[in-house]
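Posted in: Structural Biology > Protein-Ligand Complexes

Title: Requesting predicted complex, zinc ion in pocket

I'd be grateful if someone could produce the 3D structure tokens for the following input. Sequence and ligand are given below.
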Amino acid sequence: MEKQTRNKPVIKDEIGFILFHLTPFLLLFTGATKFDWWLLVALYFIRMFFITAGYHRYFSHRTFATSRVFQFLLAFFAQTSMQKGALWWAANHRVHHKHSDTPDDPHSANIYGFWYAHVGWIVGPDYKETKYELIKDFSKYKELVFLNKYHLLPAIILAIGVYFTGNMVNGTGFTDWTAGLSTLFAGFCFSTVILFHGTFTINSLMHLFGGRRYNTTDKSRNNFLFAVITMGEGWHNNHHYFQSSTRQGFFWWEFDPTYYIIKVFSWLGLVWNIREVPENLLHSNKIGK
Ligand SMILES: [Zn+2]
Ligand SMILES: [Zn+2]
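-- Reply #1 --
Done. Output follows.
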């Protein structure tokens, strides 16, 4: 298989990304309160939900339908994760499915190695621009193009909100400006760093570790542990087998909390046309059968 030339990230491109990884160390100076740690956990899982429901199951695969306002909110909250614009994310992800584990795959760990698949392709020079021609169905919405262009805006708004919330909860209102710093460093910064790597493991490890149920042309795998840390994305072989399904845990014992929450949203009328796996496909094309 002929590898494409891929450029390694250069330090000047990566500097912001590296410095951001150092921000949790500021907690050594500020300490952290119970509230800060709980917020870290909450903002990890809340944002993971929007990454998987928004970036992935809605914008990349259109596995359910929703209103223009709610789709904006999906993009906005997904982008509080600092994982670039929803249109950028989805356009590249569509290429991943089309060319999985071939030289054209943006992040095949099998071809380009673990580090390139994990972070190299995201922070490096190869995939900087949004391929709008691959995401015409959503790039017709001006507000989504705006968010995609100013992709850090939602994260900045969240960071400011986290700081002021910390100031009020940990301190005595607005008189002590330092009380919210530990909340910012733990609740936003540390949580975001863990969220980076929780999400990136899907790109780097989910084509390497785990079992394979279905015969697919790629090397995608299913893994319970990754399903827990990514709220259901660990059923990656299921997902590559039938990418149009909203649910990725195809059976009741395959933990997929993102799907459960989307289902609740459908009862509330926020989303609709949730797509399921056809019964005949569920039991066919199994490996070894
Ligand atoms: Zn996908
Ligand atoms: Zn994949």
